[in-house]
Amino acid sequence: MKPGDKLFDKIDAAIHKCKVGVAVFSPHYCESYFCLHELALLMESKKRVIPVFCDVKPSQLKVRDNGTCSPDELQRFSWALEEAKYTVGLPFDSCKGNWSEFLKEASHAVLQNLVEVEEEQTERRYHVQHQC
After folding, report:
1. Residues in domain TIR (predicted)?
2. For the chain, what is the total number of helices (H) and then of strands (E)?
3. In this structure, which topology does domain 7-129 adopt according to CATH?
4. What count of other Cβ atoms lies within 10 Å of the Cβ of residue 84?
């Protein structure tokens, strides 16, 4: 991105093009409109999402109404957050964890998911081509 680019336009387009999303949840994640919007878009687009729970447990994540979101947005964000909370993720404790080992594990998880998504898409294309 470059200065002058519309943030939502660029981010939304990138999310629509991606195959796998990684959501890094922190204790303050749910305070960010941008984070919640991106998570909701990933979930609505039915992208595969790998949650990373950094210094936070899934049960601690809650959308709070600070008066800046519409009721529809709050419902959308809450739904997306619930979907992510019930997706197998990677926990990381920054005080006790080994950052290098965690990055290896996370990289492996992303690559494995990319391969699986590619295989599923290839299989779907094959079935569509051979139905005629």
Report:
1. 1-107
2. 4, 3
3. Rossmann fold (3.40.50)
4. 23
- Asked if 84 and 41 count as a contact pair (C-beta separation under 8 A), the reply is no
Task: Please tell me which residue in 31, 38, 44, 83 is annotated as part of the active site.
Answer: 38
Q: Looking at residue 29, what DSSP letter applies? A: G
The verdict on whether 38 is a catalytic residue reads: yes
Write out the DSSP string of 39-64: HHHHHHTT-EEEEEEESS-GGG----
What is the tens place of the pLDDT at every residue in 70-121? 999 999 999 999 999 999 999 999 999 999 999 999 999 999 999 999 999 8
Torsion of CA 54, 58, 59, 60, to 10 degrees: 30
Residue ranges of the domains in the chain?
A: 7-129
Asked whether the whole model's pTM tops 0.85, one would answer yes
Residues 6+ positions from 116 with CB-CB distance below 8 Å: 48
In whole angstroms, give the CA distance from residue 49 to residue 87. 8
The rounded distance, in Å, linking the Cα atoms of 128 and 38 is 31
Q: Which of 6, 7, 18 is nearest to 43 (CA)?
A: 18
Residue at token pair 């599923």: 120
